[in-house]
Amino acid sequence: MPHNALPPASRTSLRRRLDQLGIGLAGLCAVHCLATLFLVSALGLGGHFLLEENIHRIGLLLALIVAAVAIGWGLLRHGRMLPFLVAVVGLVLMAAALVVPHGTNEFLLTLVGVALVSVGHVLNLRAAR
User: Mind telling me which residue stretches traverse the membrane in this protein (predicted)?
Assistant: First the structure.
C-alpha cells in the first residue's frame, strides 16, 4: 500500500463523515435562513451580520467543496447518479440565491437548495451501503 493511501475502511469512514458534515452544513444554513427571517423581520435585529453577503458566499463554497468530495467520491464508488444530480440542483439553487435581492426569493432558493444538497448526501450515504 502506498504511504499516502488510506485503507478501504478509512476511506469509507472519511466519505461517510464528509456526507454527514454536508448534512450538518445544510442544517446550519437552514437555521441561519430561518433566524435571519425571524430576527430581521420580526425584531429588526442582526441585519448587519445575518444579511452579510460573505456568509452566503462562504457557505456556498463550503457546500461545494464538501459535496464535490463526498458525493463525487460516492459516485466513483457506487456509480449512482441520483445523489450527484440532486446535490447539483441544490447547489445551483443556492448559487442562484446569491444573485437575487434579499427577500422571499432568496430565502426560498436557499432553503430548497440546502434541502436538496442534504437529500443528495443522504442518498449518497444510502447508495454506498
Answer: 21-43, 55-75, 82-101, 107-125
22-47 pLDDT, tens digit each:
888 888 877 877 776 676 666 655 55
pLDDT for 1:
44
Question: Cell numbers at residue 8, please?
Answer: 478501504
Sign of CA dihedral 30, 50, 69, 109: positive
Q: What is the CA radius of gyration of the chain?
A: 16
**End-to-end Cα separation, the chain, in angstroms:** 24
Spatial separation of the C-alpha atoms in residues 51 and 60, rounded to whole Å: 14
Cell of 110: 436557499
Question: Domain residues of the chain, as ranges?
Answer: 11-50
Q: What is the pTM of this model?
A: 0.74
- Chain-centroid distance of CA 65 in Å reads 9
